[in-house]
Amino acid sequence: MNRNPSSSVLTSAVEAIGDSKMVELSRMTQNEDGRILAKLEFLNPGFSKKDRVARQIIEDAEADGSLKPGQTVVELTSGNTGTGLAIVCGVKGYPFIAVMSKGNSIERARMMRALGAETVLVDQLPDSLPGQVSGGDLDRVEHVTRQLVLERNAFRADQFQLAGSMRAHYLHTGPEALRQSGQKLNVFCDFAGSGGSFAGCAAAFKEFDPAIQCYVIEPEGAEALSGKDVSRPQHRIQGGGYSKSHLPLLDEKNIDGYLAVTEEEAMTTARLLAKEEGLFTGFSSGANVAVALRLLRTTCRGKIILVLLNDSGLKYLSTDLWP
Fold this sequence. Notes:
Blueprint: E1 22-24, E2 35-40, H1 50-64, E3 73-76, H2 80-92, E4 96-101, H3 106-114, E5 118-122, H4 135-152, E6 155-156, H5 164-180, E7 187-191, H6 196-208, E8 213-219, E9 257-261, H7 263-277, H8 283-297, E10 304-309
Parallel strand pairs: 2-10, 3-4, 3-6, 4-5, 7-8, 7-10, 8-9
Antiparallel strand pairs: 1-2
Helix pairs in contact: 1-2, 1-5, 2-3, 5-6, 7-8
């Protein structure tokens, strides 16, 4: 994603966003029939794939004039988009306010503050637990975010609504993966937060080859996108699975199916990624790989499956992911 390819010295941390490496999870799949390829999104400057989204949203807004010089930027976040926006806004000179539920890991708030963001933490619902952010908790964060946008006459970097959230992955992540894999991908599966990474990558893959199967992953018991009743709105897979029945960025024609993952599967697999592959990631990365392994063992034997390793395990040291 470096837009100054003629120079080997980048002009800022923003230019270091994207072009993540791809590795094969050969140790975890040594007894499987098929391959899992993983994009190391946690190696972005803000340690997550959301750096891509932050850059694209801000640069799109600069291009169309919806973001004015020096204007304040506001967005709700579970921490990753906020970190990316703190980096991009800091480099480009925009004040940034991150609004986050107190249920998300405290490392993220500390990191955003260190990067210069004003961080507003919102109380969870009375029956919610730290580490288990529900759709209701997110609604509270949304309410505070809207208030701040009005009070500060701010630009809302809305990762759930703005096209930049998927364009970052349609223009860059998806084409990178096709190039790195030698254009030999059969399956893509992705845990849904805002839906941007799935939407963008799936659009790029289907455009290249409609036969590439693309699956949305949801937490078991919070499978609202697939139309099931939500029995467990609170779960420990941070950054997604908010029990929303509709994500504006998702295009149904690019979805081949919905798959569920338990939080235990996600956590166990994230720990195995660290121990067996040397890849220190978070909950949703574990969810992606857990489902990919299940697909290799069932309906996708012999296939090549792509996953994104979304963020760093460093963001969850205070949680029970790393006891």
